[in-house]
C-alpha cells in the first residue's frame, strides 16, 4: 500500500476554478479505491471553509513553521479521504476567487500565499502527520511547485511527482519577490528557480521532482517544442526520460446520460431516443426555435483566445449559408462576451449565449447539442470533449493536446472501421473550423453514419480507473529509484 500526499490548490467539490479541481477531486478517490492511502493538502480558502458540511478541526501536534498558520482536517465529500487544509489569513480571511481579485487581476500577495502553502506541504511530506508519513508527494501546477525544490536535498525525503495541468500558467514573479520570500540563495540559478531573471514557481517542480506528468500524451510531446513550451521546452526536453503523458479521466457517475438528474430525458448507447427530447428542451430553455432538423452546436468554456472563441465567431460568418444553431455557456474576456452577446442579439434564432457558469445548463448542452465545438489553440487534455463523447455529441476539435488523443476524425476510412467519433482540423484557423463544421452538418444527414459516430464515442472508457492504473504504475516505478 502506497502512502501518498496529494498537494493541490483546488479540488472539486471543495473549490473549483478549472480542470485542476476535477483531477484533484477525482483521481485520489480512484487511487484510494485500489487500496492505497492517499490524502489531500490544499489551502483553507474562506469560501471552502464556509461551504463545509462538517467543520474542519485543528490537527494537534503538527507545527508548520509558518507564522499565523495552522493545519485543519476534514474529508473529501463523498469519501473517507482525509483533506488537510493550510489555514493562513491570506487564504481563510479572503472570500472569492483563489487567485484573482474582483478587478480580474492576480492577488498582489499570491507569491507569499502559495510559497507558504509550499513550505507547509514540504514540512508535512518531510515530518509526516502524527505517525503517518508519505512514501510519495504528488504536486500539481505552479501553486505547489516550490515544494519539490524545498524538499529535493532533504535526506530520506519521499519520492516526488509533479503534474503540469497547463504550462501557460507558471507563477512568475520578480527577483525582489524571491528575496522577500527568504528562499535559499542556491535556488536562484537557471537550473533551479531562476527564469530569465525572474522567479518561476513551476520550475521548482519541473527541475526537482523525480517524475513529471502532464495530462495527455500529445501535450507531453508538444510542450517539448518552442510552439507550446512557453520558454521551458529546453528544460522539458532535458527531462524527457522522466516526462509522462497520462490522459485525464472523467467522473462517469456525475456524467452519465442514463442517470443524469439535470436532464429532462435519459438515454444510453443502445437507446438514443432521449437525445431528441433533450435537444428540444435545451432549445426552449435558451430561446432557440425548436427544430429537430437544424444542427445545434454547443460550446462551454472560458471565453478567451486559447479556447478559439474568435475562430467560432469568424466561422459563424463563413457558415451564414448553413442552417445551424449555436448554444454558448461561459465567461471570460469582455471583448468576447460583448461579441457573443452582440451576435445573439443580431441573430436571436441562430445564437444563444449565457454568460457565467451553470452546472445544470452545462449538462443539458452536452446532452442536447448535436455536436460540440472545441477549436482550442492548445488544450493540455480537455474534459468537455470527453463529456461530449459520453453524451453522444460528436466533438468538432482542433487536433492538439488531449483533443488529438481522444477525438478520431470522421474520415471515410475511420467511419468504415467504426473508430470515428468526431471531426478534427489541423490548423487554428476559422476556415478550417468552418470546413469541419460543414463536414459535421453533412454527415449528420446520414442517420446511420451519425449514430455510428455517437455510439463509437459512447463506447469508450474515459473513467478515472484507467488513468489511476497508470499513475499507480508510475508511483511503483518511482519507489524503486
Description of the molecule:
The structure is a single chain. The chain is α/β, with parallel strands linked by helices and 481 residues long. The chain is 38% helix and 16% strand. It contains 19 helices and 18 strands. Helix 12 (334-346) links the parallel strand 14 and strand 15 (351-355).
Summary of the model, kept short:
The chain has 481 residues and is of the alpha/beta class. It contains 19 helices and 18 strands. Strands 3-4-5-2-1-6-7-11-12 form a nine-stranded mixed beta sheet, sandwiched between helices. It has a six-stranded parallel beta sheet with strand order 15-14-13-16-17-18, with helices on both faces.
Please describe the structure with a list of short key phrases separated by commas or semicolons:
single chain, 481 residues, alpha/beta, Rossmann fold, 9-stranded mixed β-sheet, 6-stranded parallel β-sheet, 19 helices, 18 strands, 38% helix
Topology:
Elements (H helix, E strand, L loop, with lengths): L2 E5 L11 H14 L4 E7 L2 H6 L5 E2 L11 E6 L6 E6 L1 H4 L17 H18 L8 E5 L5 H6 L7 E6 L7 E2 L1 H6 L13 E2 L2 E3 H8 L2 E4 L2 H6 L10 H6 L4 E3 L28 H13 L9 E5 L8 H10 L6 E6 L3 H13 L4 E5 L3 H10 L2 E4 L9 H7 L4 E4 L2 H6 L5 H6 L5 E3 L4 H15 L2 H12 L5 H16 L2
Second rung of CATH, namely the architecture of the largest domain: 3-Layer(aba) Sandwich
Residues in helices, as a percent range: 25-40%
Order the strands across the largest sheet as they lie in space.
3-4-5-2-1-6-7-11-12
Count of DSSP strands: 18
**What structural class do helix, strand and pairing data support?**
alpha/beta
Q: What is the alpha-carbon Rg in Å?
A: 23 Å
At the first level of CATH, the class of the largest domain is: Alpha Beta
Number of helices: 19
State the shape.
Answer: globular
User: Mean of the pLDDT scores?
Assistant: 95
Content of β-strand: 15-25%
N-to-C CA distance:
17 Å
At the fold tier of CATH, the topology name of the largest domain is: Rossmann fold
Largest sheet: 9 strands, mixed
Model regions low in confidence, pLDDT < 50 over at least 5 residues = none
How many domains? 2
- Report the CATH superfamily of the largest domain: Glycogen Phosphorylase B
